[in-house]
Design brief:
mainly alpha, elongated, binds zinc ion
Length: 203
């Protein structure tokens, strides 16, 4: 499966499992589960593989960074651990490409390649999986955001300022002396403050 989908599923795992070590372990396990599902692959050539793998690698790195940034700070270690664990088994792709060796023991590499259920023309599966994992991860991270104990109450004076300003203009316009800047400036503040929204209720 595309590395981006492993990263997104790892973010979901980290968002649900709050502790980094279990999130990392489940992330690694999730990699092999997803690779055993039908997915896009069986590239016709190395060139074709790279045309998909290079953008996929770059997008997954950007995704990791973006998800780490938007994660609530108390969940970030578990989310990053989940993404790292889910991406780890594919570390052999860049090391094979650049250095010609895999960092994993041969039995792990054999297992990893044997479980693949790849076929061409399955890009839509990857796109659907990406959408589902991204949505689920964002919901999990949003739900885990700590709720404030109480909403801060807006300051009563600042809340009534627009009302007071409106009253002040109406009062000034109604006064016979309107037009004299001095009258408006000296009388408005007192009258405006004395008028409260409660006094406006019809009696
Ligand atoms: Zn893999």
């Amino acid at each position: 499966m595309l590395l981006t989908n492993h990263v997104l599923s790892g973010a979901l795992i980290g968002g649900l499992i709050r502790r980094p070590a279990p999130a990392f372990a489940v992330g690694v396990a999730s990699h092999f589960v997803l690779d055993a599902m039908p997915h896009w692959g069986k590239w016709a050539s190395q060139r074709h593989f790279l045309r998909v793998a290079v953008p996929d690698g770059l997008i997954s790195l950007a995704t990791m960074g973006a998800i780490a940034v938007v994660s609530p700070p108390d969940r970030r270690p578990a989310v990053v651990a989940g993404m790292a664990g889910a991406a780890l088994p594919d570390l052999d792709k860049p090391t094979m490409l650049w250095f010609g060796w895999s960092p994993f023991p041969a039995p792990v590499d054999r297992f990893h390649s044997r479980i693949q259920r790849e076929a061409p023309r399955r890009a839509h599966i990857e796109v659907l999986a990406a959408g589902a994992f991204a949505a689920a991860a964002l919901i999990a991270l949003r739900r885990s955001r700590p709720q404030p104990l109480s909403r801060p109450q807006p300051n009563a004076l600042s809340a009534s300022l627009p009302f007071l300003a409106g009253r002040a203009v109406a009062l000034a316009a109604a006064r016979p002396g309107f037009g004299s800047a001095g009258t408006v400036a000296t009388r408005l503040p007192t009258q405006a403050v004395m008028m409260s929204p409660l006094e406006e209720k019809p009696t």
